Structure formats: structure tokens, C-alpha cells
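[Q] Does anyone have a clean C-alpha cell version of this?
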Amino acid sequence: MSLKLTLLLLTVAFLATTTYTQELEAPEQNEEFKCTHGEQEYVEPELLDVEEDWNAEGNNHEGRTLASYGQFRAKAYYGFLRSSVSYFQNDLIPPILDYFNAALKIKYPVSGLLKVTSGSQCGKSTPSSLRSGMNADYVLMIETEAGSGTWVASTMVCSSASGTRRPLVAHSKINTNKMKAQTSGNVLLHEKNMICMMHEITHSLGFTSNMYSSFLNANGQRQSGLVTSAKLAGYTSTVLTAEPLRTMLRNHFGCSSLKGAYMENTGGSGTTGHHFERRIFSGFEFMTSGLIYEMQVSKFTLGLLESTGWYVPNYAYAEELNWGKGQGCSFVTGSCSASSFSEFCSGSGRRCTDTGFSSGSCSSDSRSDGCKFIHPNVNYHCQSSSAKNSARLPSAESYGRSAGSRCFEGSLSSSSSSASTTAFCFKFSCSGSGSSTRLTVNVGSKSAVCTKAGSISVSGYNGKITCPNPQQFCSGAKKCPRGCMGRGTCNNGKCACRSGFKGIDCALRSSF
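[A] Here you go.
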């Protein structure tokens, strides 16, 4: 089956070809591409009799604190890399594993070494390091291949624990004809690769439909009845009712009757049910089906991983995602009217995205059930220095990865008194707290102070700038991207990286 969609940015489509394998389609250099859904036979992962801190009859973890669990130990094996070895081994995969190792604690760790005695894993010869044993709870084998077709990466769980059924060994294959090594310092494209592989690994940790029946409750017992269905926008959607994710979603949307997490309702057998529903979670939650710039690792993905019963997340590593917050049940189950909900849009023109890092245009896509939202355009991205070429007020706006600017809408002009509304990238600062929060937007040498949502003037300019809600905006601005990847500390929205690392999220080696 072939689907065509038009996005105003470089986009990668995520595709899970089986429960434990997901393929990603590569974008062309233009903004239109085809998403081809393949079919593969599902292969049940091997069950390993490893020693775990687990007993199905007597484990009660209820009431234990986060600190009482051990830190997750994820490691990689790079012996199957054939090209771009340095990039994948030193720059792409390590920060991802550092993130998961910092963000997750594990309820049922492997006691001693993770050892595999069988001769093969996912059709590959078992590495000698796994045969002798690795000090890990999860091992990812990375392979590169100059493949044909449109796929970017494929990930499969090879082995799970015979007791908890938690994934232990996984295999990721990367198509180097489609995922290029970003050694030239193009950080935005490097981040695209990183989010792509974080998505893949998250699937292999438990975010996939055939693992739902293996989720454990607080007593370490397998749960049943976690999956139901509901109608949404004319489609039948899978709904995951697992806790604590369901309660988290009810509190977020302000809907006490919400059944649970609605999963993707289109895309075929490899996509449907394996991802969050884009219409509800927006294209900015990185576990929706399809990748765009600005995707966030939200508390909802960490909440699903906690709902497996295998992990205890540290939610300080979640990024801010306010999509639909407090909008009530009708946001989830009703129509996506732009007149009712600001998250959705209509009309044309350049507007800020929901995350506020970029601007783009209003459109729907093949996963949003016809609902329109602002899709970011890399040519207008506040973190892209070349986007300054598209600025209305280039001398007043700030662009670049470390510029610290965000997107603001308005009709500001240095000459015309009747300029149309567009989007700008301005630096900002926050002060105060609670209802006294003040957001100062720097328009070149001038500034505008926002004390509430609404339009205000800026000295020296015609037109107005639109203030977002200062309290909500500044709350999100205090969060660091991906919690500094476990490689630094977050201080009021900025990462202080450990020695050897750099970047707004500490994901880069100093030599990158």
C-alpha cells in the first residue's frame, strides 16, 4: 500500500513492520515522498532463562521509591557496523543509551551478567561478548547496510526474559543509503537521526502492541484486559488502558472518563496500534508515526514505559508537551475545530508551531485523521542559522542552534502599518513565578513585556506582537531538551554539560 503526503519540512515516516520490527521510510530531498508499508512475518523472540530479581508470586513493588531501584543498564554491540563506524559508534548511539540509562530505573534487573548461550540472535551470530556475559540489562546490536528501497532503519527484539518477558537483546539495522552520517556539524540533521533511533529503541523496550499482554502490575503479575477499542473520527482505534499512563492522560486533558491512550488508527498492520494517535498527541510526540523537527520525548512515552511494569522513569527527563492540556474530553473524542481548540488551525500564512521552536504552515497529514496543525518548516526554524534568510525583521531576530530564541507571532513591521500576521524568532527571558510570571520578548534592541496572553505593541515598530500565556510559556522554557541526555545538569532551561560533551542537550561530543 502506498500513501503520499506533503509536509513543509524534511520528514521521516516511522513504520513498524511487525510487532518487534519497525521500518522507517527515508525522505527525498524535496518535500513530497511516498510511505510504503511492507509486511513481514512476525517472529516470536527467544525466551532466555536469565537470573532476575523477579518472582511472579511474591513481588510487591507498591510503595517503593524511585531511589530504591537500580539504574537501567543499556549497552550496544557495534561489531556488525560496516560503514560510518565512527559516527554510529561514537556520536549517534551513545547519547541515546545515556538518555535511557539516566531516565529509567529497572524493577527486575539481570542478576550478574546478561549471557546468551544460543548460537544466534535475530539471525546474526551471537557476539562473543554476549556469550561470555555483559554487565547489562539490555543489549542493542547495531548493524549498517547500504540497502535498497526506502527503509531507513529496522529494529527487532531478539530475546526476552523467560520470567518477566522484558526485552533483553535487540537488533537495529540502519540503511546508510538513507541515514547519512552527520559529521559536517549539521546538528539539526544529526538530531533527526538521533530522534529516529530513540523512537526505534523505545519500540524495542516495550512500546509495541504484542508486548501489551506481557505488562506487569505492581505485584509483578501479568495483566489482562489492557486493550480495548473505541471509535474515533470514523476509525476503530486500539485503546491502551494501562496505568499509570491512563491516569496521566486523564489529568493532562482534564477528562476523568478517558478510556486510556488512543493508539494510531491508520497505516496498516505495522503502524496501527504501535504508535500514539497523532490526532490526539500531535506530530510532536516522538512516538507518533512520523517524524518532524521539534519532536518531544514527553511524559506520555515515559508513562507507557512505566506501565510495562518493568521500568520506573524519572520524569525530569520528559520534555514539555502542552498539546490539548486541560481541553476536556471533547478534545480527544470530538471534532478538531480550529475555532474550538487553538492546537488546530485553518487558513494560510506562516504561524508558530505548538512547541514554539519554529514556524510553518497549516496542513493535515496521513496520520492526523484530517485534522490540521502547524507543521514546522526547516527553512523557518529558529535553530537553523540559514532561516534568517526568510526573516521579516532580520536585524531584530535571532537564529541558530544556540541562539536561545523562540517563535512569536505578530504583525510587526519597521515600515508598514498594515503588515500581515507572520512569525518571528526572538530571544526572551522570564522572571517571577505563578500568576506574577513576566515574559520579556527582545525585538532587537527593544523589548516587550508580556504579563498575560494577548497582543501588545513594541516601541519603534508598527503592528503588534502576540504574547503567549507567560506562565505556561516560561514553565516549558525552564525544561532542558531531553533532560541533557544524562550528560549534564539542567539549570533554568540550559544544560551545563559534563566535560567532553556540548550542545543544547549535551548530546554532542566536544569534537563533533
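[Q] Thanks! Anything notable?
[A] The radius of gyration is 23 Å.
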